[in-house]
């Protein structure tokens, strides 16, 4: 079943280009480069979704979304980080305020959910106890709910008013990989569709964004080549005392996700930070035994990210950086520089996370740990 791969996780990392393509496919028209969200089925049962008339359903979805002026995204773990990327996409493109919350916090803090709110949950398994409780609570409070699940007909999927799917295929490795990248792809589609119907995006921009989204699967193929790189680099990287992951904007959740992957797989201490927060504390951690993992694709925050990186380096931190293309500056100041292809800011996150997945995978293998089944963790967290 591992089809020649040593682990499910590695197989699933390699399946990402296909998984992302499958996540996008239902919602984009590759001829006109337009988005029409397919068969969300607001108010329909999950069993009926396949039979819906897609055009009529899209009209219905537009009616529902036209009434939304605030979005809450609720999830746990890696799915929560995908939700954070979604916040940047939806706020920037559709100009609707988005709040992202951890399900276990949301459900117990008596959240204020104003009328016209959309509560979106993200869950690969569709069975996560806290996320399920959160969507039930949101429904009771009168919100419109929309789930993004991988497992169709899972409990959360059935509970939601509207339904989107990651379309990743079964994810077996406990550490989530392809579900994460597929979710970011679905969120791109959602944000574009939502922005168009709210009138915050013109047709030319829609075309540009859909084109860049359609280019992602083949761009991902190239980034997967870092597999070999990290296989070799792992024996050096494991000597670091800790890893500080940083990024700004939509690269901030990628820093969080990178740090989580390293913790859960290699059992090494890692923290994810917004790069701008460094001088508010974490700079004190930095010395030559600390690795700085900087997620710095070329976007409108790049220059600011670089000045944070230089500060960290000046304190002796060793740099592992991810940037766009042949970036000589980053290459010069980094021990390890990993390039992603030039992409629109909306899709950078789908590409920058791949080297981080591969780095954690190879560190864990090098240290002799069970990558598919890390200690103390379960694939589906059905108790709180
Ligand atoms: C990390 C990981 C977990 C899950 C979290 C939510 O690699 O897999 O953090 O993302 O338990 O799971 P789902 O998405 O099934 O609700």
From TrEMBL:
UniProt KW Transferase keyword: yes
GO molecular function: glutamine-fructose-6-phosphate transaminase (isomerizing) activity
Signal peptide positions (record): none
E.C. no: 2.6.1.16
Keyword line: Aminotransferase, Cytoplasm, Glutamine amidotransferase, Repeat, Transferase
Catalytic EC class: transferase
Domain SIS span(s) in chain numbering: 61-200, 233-374
Active site (UniProt): 379
Recorded catalytic activity of this chain's protein: D-fructose 6-phosphate + L-glutamine = D-glucosamine 6-phosphate + L-glutamate
Subcellular location: Cytoplasm
Transferase listed as a keyword: yes
Coiled coil: none
Task of the protein: Catalyzes the first step in hexosamine metabolism, converting fructose-6P into glucosamine-6P using glutamine as a nitrogen source.
Subunit note: Homodimer.
Protein name as it appears in the record: Glutamine--fructose-6-phosphate aminotransferase [isomerizing]
Species for this entry: Bdellovibrio reynosensis
Species lineage: Bacteria, Pseudomonadati, Bdellovibrionota, Bdellovibrionia, Bdellovibrionales
